[in-house]
Q: What sequence folds into this?
């Protein structure tokens, strides 16, 4: 039976996985970037688990060429489950079974990687007229309260679209969408000095032209009207249909808020960031952490 959404309730998350992952070549020649393994889980699993822990019921993957392994990762594999049980590996069987039940996963194909905005636009029919979350799996956010859940709380209180933000200083800023913001009337004490009204956005500006040091990171709650804005924009920076440009219209039309989220973010979208994230998550791993710390010491760096 199909459940109807309560007004404003966010049930669906869009996770685009159709990018080319050029920064990881040759690793990503035959394997999607989102299947790169961070300690013991592929990147995509961190994003799906965050969405589910935030109350999301349905994952919409924007797939591209060669992304079948991502879909298979979340499908039931009864043969494997049976075989594991037969071999007395009950724990492993549960792990595999849990993955197949984690969330309802649907897919829509992006025929060509025309940009993040275009990828999100591909979800229009599956999302319908509901607000929805977007998670970019190469942004990993470790937080006591999942980052998507933090944004959902702002969405429930303020309405409109909400993006996650953090400060980035220096030339690194030029790789992001950067915002012009004003402090928002924080309806809750815990958001004091952390909640902003977004007035304008620019994709990958030069440092000299950046309107602030507040950048958009890969977590969003979007109102469905964003699909109209995506349909209306032309290719922007890098010849791609940019989500930032659609959000720019959204910020003019009605409220877009930005929350300086609580938690630690890693950009696992390039090799160095991925290695850093690997160290971070390996050291925090409940079973591997202390042994890994010792192993690092023994390297005599
Ligand atoms: P990135 O900007 O990291 O691009 O996309 P990319 O193409 O994956 O990687 P590089 O820059 O070539 O190394 C952010 C997210 O948006 C998805 C990617 O799969 C990634 O999860 N994406 C990007 C799409 O699904 N479609 C696109 O057209 C572009």
A:
């Amino acid at each position: 039976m199909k459940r109807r959404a309560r007004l404003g309730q966010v049930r669906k998350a869009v996770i685009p996985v159709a990018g080319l992952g050029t920064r990881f070549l040759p690793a990503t020649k035959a394997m999607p970037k989102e299947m790169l393994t961070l300690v013991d889980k592929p990147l995509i699993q961190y994003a799906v688990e965050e969405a589910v822990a935030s109350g999301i019921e349905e994952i919409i993957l924007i797939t591209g060429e060669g992304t079948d392994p991502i879909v298979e990762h979340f499908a039931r594999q009864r043969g494997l489950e049976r075989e594991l049980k037969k071999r007395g590996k009950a724990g492993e069987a549960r792990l595999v079974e849990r993955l197949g039940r984690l969330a309802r996963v649907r897919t829509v194909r992006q025929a060509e990687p025309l940009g993040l905005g275009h990828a999100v636009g591909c979800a229009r029919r599956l999302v319908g007229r509901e607000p929805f979350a977007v998670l970019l799996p190469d942004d990993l956010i470790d937080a006591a309260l999942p980052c998507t859940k933090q944004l959902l709380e702002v969405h429930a209180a303020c309405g409109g679209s909400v993006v996650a933000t953090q400060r980035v200083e220096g030339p690194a800023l030029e790789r992001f969408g950067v915002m012009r913001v004003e402090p928002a009337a924080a309806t809750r004490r815990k958001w004091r000095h952390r909640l902003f009204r977004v007035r304008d956005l620019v994709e990958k500006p030069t440092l000299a032209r950046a309107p602030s040091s507040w950048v958009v990171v890969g977590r969003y709650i979007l109102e469905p009207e964003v699909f109209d804005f995506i349909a209306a924009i032309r290719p922007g920076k890098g010849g791609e249909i940019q989500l930032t440009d659609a959000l720019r219209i959204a910020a003019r039309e009605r409220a877009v808020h930005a929350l300086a989220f609580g938690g630690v973010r890693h950009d696992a979208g390039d090799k160095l960031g991925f290695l850093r994230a690997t160290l971070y998550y390996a050291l925090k791993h409940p079973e591997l952490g202390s042994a890994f710390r010792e192993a690092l010491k023994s390297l005599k760096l």
Summary: The CA atoms of residues 160 and 292 lie 44 Å apart.
